[in-house]
Amino acid sequence: MSVRHYLSLLDLDRDEVVALIAQAIKLKTWRRNGYRPPLFSGKTLAMIFEKSSTRTRVSFEVAMAEGSGSAIFLSTRESQLGRGEPPEDTARVLSEMADAVMIRTFEHEMVERFAAVSRVPVINGLTNSLHPCQVLADLVTWFEHRGEISGRRVAWVGDGNNMCNSYINAAALMGFELRVAVPAGYEPAALDRAQRVTLTHDPVVAVRDADLVVTDVWASMGQEEEAAARREVFRPFQVNAALLAHAAPGALFMHCLPAHRGEEVASEVIDHPDSVVWDEAGNRLHAQKALLDFLFRVT
Ligand code: CP
Ligand code: NVA
User: I want to staple 39 with a disulfide (CB 3.0 to 4.6 A). Which of 29, 67, 124, 184 is the partner?
Assistant: First the structure.
């Protein structure tokens, strides 16, 4: 069998995503009932982090531990990647020892180079371009709260960043309508190949009658020096109660976290009962267990 990677949501087809969502929800229920199946017995996940993380690191480590496998954390600073060893050489070496590799890095091209020679599944744990593990957890969260997403209306408000690109992929694959509101000059790269996506510079237009409203930080990792300038440009794009008043009744709010209350989201929104951000964060664990199990089975 040829190796399957997960660098983008579009590496899966719709049926596979639907099956992963169902599996994640089943694993979550089992865990609540005290059952943690040994899905990864004897298997090792190597995790390369070139950027910070709380949720991604913990969810992958816990997923492997609860599945009777193990995870190894490699940071740029403490591995030879940080001293210039090429991704291709690292991929060949890790393929000899690990059963899968998760990578969080800057340039998307790095994970593509790595995956091109890896003999074990490679999972994108966030690049500047995409965050496919997060959008998978977001889909799990929508399905557990509201069921099918096809035909629903989703608003993305804020930066046209890696999460926004992943939502554009999800809209095409899962058949929901996505309205993206970003300041001029911050349009998402994935818009070029977008289906079911409309772009606006007016957050009210995006949020009107939306069933789900999503935002993310205004300055992503690697953009720290732009943060002050971005705060000014993005101020009209804050998701607050006044903006959410335009959404459909009972609209859900999601944010991949970490959040900056008072910047991209007001406390009144993130701490409101229609905010499902804690389920969303917790679902990283279940979604990634389902993903790892799938990749091990098909590879
Ligand atoms: N949402 C997310 O990926 O969080 P971390 O940066 O903490 O992993
Ligand atoms: N867009 C954010 C997501 C963090 C999980 C970033 O890339 O920093």
Answer: 67
Q: Which of 55, 59, 105, 264 to mutate to test the pocket of ligand 1 (most atoms within 8 A of CB)?
A: 55
The matching CATH number, chosen from 2.40.320.10, 3.40.50.1370, 3.10.129.10, 3.40.30.10, for 132-280 is 3.40.50.1370
Render pLDDT for 254-267 as a digit per residue (tens, 0 to 9).
Answer: 999 999 999 999 99
* Residue located nearest, by CA, to atom 7 of ligand 1: 54
Beta strand residue intervals within the chain, DSSP E:
44-49, 70-75, 100-104, 122-124, 153-157, 177-181, 197-200, 212-215, 252-255
* Ligand 2 centroid from CA 254, angstroms: 14
41-64, pLDDT tens digit by residue?
999 999 999 999 999 999 999 999
Match domain 9-131+283-298 to its CATH number in 3.40.50.1370, 3.40.640.10, 3.40.50.300, 3.90.380.10: 3.40.50.1370
The verdict on the CB of residue 53 being under 6 Å from ligand 1 is: yes
Cα–Cα dist 65/278, whole Å = 21
